[in-house]
Amino acid sequence: MPDFLKIIALGALLALSSRPAMAIDQNTVTPVVFDCWQPERIFKQCAATGPDGRPRLKRAYLARLRYDRDGLASVMLFNGTDTRKYQWYYVRRGAIPVPVEAMDSGPDNFEDGLARARVGSKIGYIDRKLNLVIPATYDGAYPFRDGVAVVCTACTYVPDTTATEGARERGGYAGGQWGRIDRRGRAVSPFRSYEEYLLDFK
Questions:
Q1: DSSP 8-state code for residue 58
Q2: Which of these, 52, 186, 56, lies nearest to 120 by C-alpha position?
């Protein structure tokens, strides 16, 4: 094959391989429907995922929630076909529910005004207005105490095999790098290996 034909053929192959993949039409994706749980009561099909994949609570259900003095309510969402998979959310009127970590079979408490919130596979911290005030960059995180929280990166969750099913908060994290942060997300101690961090408690 002459050189100029090879160049033309190579150019055509490169053009075809660089074409963008066709985006999936969000309107064709079937929403996931959730049931909601509050103590001693289950509400069927109270929420469904929106176009962005995040759940939206139905207006009729929003009116049933008990809001605190800051306008916050909590709800546990689960798929009716698999009740073992659930997620706690904090809710405010007019805002998209925010997923939070579980603590003592309920949503994470606001300690020092902040609660742990999950964004994908990472954990950050939200304030009572549901703003993500400390970015979700940690693989493991514990609640704040006296203005400081213990966090880790590249760590893995280790479940407590003696805890009841679904009690995620009964486990802990191991491995990776550990440190402490303040309420602004600034490191207040150098990050060290898990083994070095444990030495402080021996």
A1: -
A2: 52
**Residue 22: helix, strand or coil by DSSP?**
coil
> In the numeric block, which tokens belong to residue 180?
């402490």
Distance of CA 201 to the CA centre of its chain: 29
What is the per-residue pLDDT for 186?
A: 97
Pairwise CA distance, residues 68 & 109, whole Å: 13
State how far the Cα of 112 lies from the Cα of 148, in Å rounded to an integer: 9
If we measure between CA atoms, which residue out of 49, 145, 135, 133 comes closest to residue 89?
A: 49
Q: What's at 195, amino acid-wise? A: E
| Each residue's pLDDT tens digit, 123-151 | 999 999 999 999 999 999 999 999 999 99
Length of the chain: 202
Of 104, 71, 103, 101, the residue nearest 89 (C-alpha): 101
**Which residues, at least 6 apart from 160, have a Cβ–Cβ distance to it below 8 Å?**
167, 170, 171, 172
Nearest to 97 by CA among 75, 79, 78, 82: 75
The pLDDT > 90 percentage for the chain reads 63
Question: What is residue 198's predicted lDDT score, i.e. its pLDDT?
Answer: 85
Site of tokens 């066709």: 22
Spatial separation of the C-alpha atoms in residues 167 and 21, rounded to whole Å: 41
β-sheet bridge partners, residue 152: 140, 178
